[in-house]
Structure formats: structure tokens, C-alpha cells
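Before the break, one more example. Copy the sequence into your notebook; we will annotate it together after we see the structure.
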Amino acid sequence: MRRAQRHLAIREIRGYRTVSADASLALAGSMPWDLHALVLAALYQWRGDQRSQGQRPAPREVEAERARLEQSAVERWRDRLAVSRAGRRTCQALLPVLEEWMRRGHGRLSYRLTQVLTGHGCFGAYLAQIGRELTGRCHHCDGREEDTAQHTLESCPAWAREREDLIAVVGGDLSLAAVVARMAGSREAFAAVQTFCESVLLQKEEAERVREASADAPMIRRRRTGRWRGRYALLLPPP
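Here is what the structure looks like once it is written out:
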């Protein structure tokens, strides 16, 4: 069940297949199915108990009991996310505003926005982790910083102009927790973060393609076989 729900959540958030189940479900605002099943079972038992006592609860009473049970399930889910290791950066950012994020009535995650929220995407650190780059260094600044999603969002000088527009809407705190909180509470903030991610990631992807096209580029973006894979393997550092 968890594997199937993770697959659906990743498709919903338009994320990489390497995004963890906890992070993908939290971003999708999709409560784990086992917890949802417990809510339905408890509600069924409650209604049965009411009928056995000769009572017929009104619809508003049923909805109130459902809301109470769902609140309890969300708290259990929150406890799981608090100790999650996979996707920890994303889970920790969503924890303080999990319910608000689930119930927000605005914003839809895009492919590039999800990359920044999960750290799985066109970032040197991630590409090095999956064997597509030799190192995780940033190609867009002095190269001494590791190219992570947070570096791209918060500090890389290459995106200073785009970052100024973002800060004008969401404020100067660009930690992921602060950004997610603003996104959950404001349609304008959500749109501003999405605009930043689309603009910056498009430029990073284009630069990646240019580097890939270079004859001496020590990287691959797609899986290769045969002699090309062998030539790339010679460039990799020893394990």
C-alpha cells in the first residue's frame, strides 16, 4: 500500500522517482492510507455504537466525529514525519504547517518547484549522488559551494535578481520552513516561489545541456550503455 501510494504521490507532485514516501506524501497533502483506514474503521465503529444505543446521530455529529478522528490521525502522521530520515529536509519544513498545507485552497506543485522543495533535481549535489556528476560543486558561482536546492534558493549569487523579486513577496528569511509557511498561507507567496523556481531551474537546465554537449564534459544526464558508459566510468573517482 505504501509503495502504491508513494507512486501516486510522486506523480501528483511531479517529482523525481527518488523522492521518499514521507516527503512525497507530505507535499501531496495525502495522509498515509493506513491512517486513513483507521479513521474510517473508527468512524464505522462509533456509528455502530450509537445505533446499538438506539441513537441516530445527525450529519453534523458524524462530521464532527470524523473531524476529531482525522485530527488524531494527522497527529500520528506528524509523529512519523518528525522521525523520518528519508526526505528529512522536506518533512521538517512541512511539519509546522502540515494541516494548513493540506487544506490550502491555492497553488499546484510543478516539476521545477518540487525540485527545490525536495532537493531532487538539477543540483550538483544530487547529480553527484546519483552518479551523473563527478562533484557536487556549483557551476554558477565560484565553485566552492555545494550546489544544493537550498544554495540555489538562498545564497547562490547567480540568481540574485530573481531572488530579489522573491524576497519582495515572501520576506528575507529563505529557509525552507519559512518559505513553505508563506506558501501555505498566501496565494501570492506560492506564485512568487513558483516563478523563482521556474526561472532559475530553466536556466540551470539549459546550462546543464550546454555542459553536456561539450566534448570533454565529465558527466552524463541519461543512462548510457556500451562504450560510452565505459568511457564515463573511467572518469569516476574510486569507490
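DSSP finds 13 helices and no strands in the chain. Residues 187-213 form the longest helix (27 residues). Try to locate both features in your own notes.
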